From TrEMBL:
Record SUPFAM superfamilies: HAD-like
InterPro entries referenced in this protein's UniProt entry, alphabetically: Cof, HAD-like_sf, HAD-SF_hydro_IIB, HAD_sf
NCBIfam families in UniProt: Cof-subfamily, HAD-SF-IIB
PROSITE patterns cross-referenced by the UniProt entry: COF_2 (PS01229)
Pfam families to which the protein is assigned, alphabetical: Hydrolase_3 (PF08282)
Entry protein name: Cof-type HAD-IIB family hydrolase
Record GO terms (molecular function): hydrolase activity
Record's keyword terms, sorted: Hydrolase
């Protein structure tokens, strides 16, 4: 049976270490769309940081979707309309900023098409490099941003982010969803937001079955997505605990892992 949807995380899954879609993977995904398969991108990235890749893969021409901010927004790529949206309230945003200040972590969010950050860190430019969005640094991000926001991120070294996630950040779980994307990004979203939740919502709205979907991922924010769909696939470079949860493990993002396994599952060769 043809899957209702094939879903891809972006960083370290669809994209190589050079932050691009390889030519072979691109050619393969264009071919399967021509044969009627529908693709979707699901990422912690902001919408603006996903659209270029979505259009490179011609998702706008094949009636496809993107799930940005870890599922906080679902976008129809053809007209860039928002199908569903959940935000972090200004009150919770201020609480997260205070938490980051207390623990000396850089904090950033997305506002008026830009990344806005407070503080400094040697990883502070990574999100801008990955997404292609401009970044500005402000002295008081709480004063600068006066609205609800789609997502908030704390940025710090890997060990500290892991420690914060396991301990102090758990104080927010009654009101917020928390995950790790890159090992140096601790992400805060509206309660209930996740890639898996977004997939279920899209399936309900579009009359699809989550059990007839395939999803690819590599990181902590891909756990519930991998568990939600019928066939969850971990990349060869994925976390070991994600590989254990996945139905299948393919080659790495730098070894054409996506076309390698889809050729077997779909019976479509390039």
């Amino acid at each position: 049976m043809k899957p209702d949807l094939i879903i891809f995380d972006m960083d370290d899954t669809l994209l190589t270490s050079q932050n691009r879609v390889s030519q072979k993977t691109k050619d393969y995904l264009l071919k399967v769309q021509q044969l009627g398969y529908k693709l979707t991108l699901a990422s912690g990235r902001p919408t603006e940081g996903m659209m270029a890749v979505a259009k490179e893969l011609k998702l706008d021409q094949y009636g496809s979707y993107i799930m940005s901010y870890n599922g906080g927004q679902i976008i129809d790529v053809a007209n860039q309309s928002i199908i569903a949206k959940q935000s972090v309230s200004k009150e919770n945003f201020d609480r997260i900023v205070d938490f980051c200040r207390q623990h000396n972590m850089l904090v950033l969010t997305y506002y008026e098409g830009r990344i806005v950050c407070e503080g400094t860190h040697h990883y502070m430019g990574v999100e801008s490099e990955l997404t292609g969005m401009p970044m500005i640094q402000v002295d008081d991000i709480k004063a600068y941003v006066q609205t609800d926001v789609p997502k908030v991120m704390a940025v710090d070294d890997e060990d500290k982010i892991a420690s914060m996630y396991a301990s102090e950040a758990q104080q927010f779980t009654d009101e917020l969803a928390i995950t790790i994307s890159k090992p140096f990004f601790l992400e805060f979203m509206c309660k209930g937001v996740s890639k898996g939740t977004a997939i279920r919502r899209l399936a309900e709205q579009r009359g699809m079955s989550v059990k007839n979907m395939i999803a690819f991922g590599d990181s902590a924010n891909d756990f519930d997505m991998i568990e939600t769909v019928g066939t969850g696939i971990a990349m060869g470079n994925a976390r070991e605990d994600l590989k254990e949860k996945a139905d299948l493990v393919t080659k790495s993002h730098d070894e054409e892992g996506i076309p390698f396994i889809l050729t077997q599952l779909l019976g479509v060769e390039l």
